[in-house]
Amino acid sequence: MNNLSEENGETPDFLEPEDLEEEFIEEEPEEEEPADTIFTNGKGYVAKEEADRIFQHGFYGIRLDDGRLELEPVEILHLFERKRITVKTSAGDPIGAKDIVNGLRDTDPDLWIRYLVFRDLRSRGYAVRQGFVGGISFRVYARGERPGDATANQLIYVLREGEAISLHDLDMVTETASAARKKLVFGLVDQNGEVNYYRVAQATLQNRSGDTN
User: Is pTM beyond 0.90 here?
Assistant: First the structure.
């Protein structure tokens, strides 16, 4: 059986104890020219010459064999909002965040909801990577850990307020987190776009006959 618990308001309960004293807000880097990003097939691509600069501003993207940096849609939206990149189609036409969200609506209808959680996590100073199969939206790294040098210690499952999750799906994601030996956290986005966090844990109940379920 699964148990969902919430701690106090703005500070999510998956923060490590040493982080509870003061929330870390990501500092804006010194202003510099935004990097050109080509948006195609649902991903963004930064040229080799600019890839290191964008990656080092917060471990964005994945380096490809040809040296380019491949960005996920939530990373594009975040970098675009922070004015770190400009986005164009492969034909060279400029596009904005709304164009990206609307363009991916059929294949990724929850992109904006996931982005709100991604942005909130990044504002708290966490390195965040794309999730994997089973509905896990993001992998979150401990403070000071670098993707590639360490493994994520928490998994984020994103939900919209009022959206139901079946017991089957709940069991599936808790089993996925348990098998990976990572903490599972639900990021719940309310109607105002505010994000609240719930830690999900497995519990075993014992019935009167002594059997466990």
Answer: no
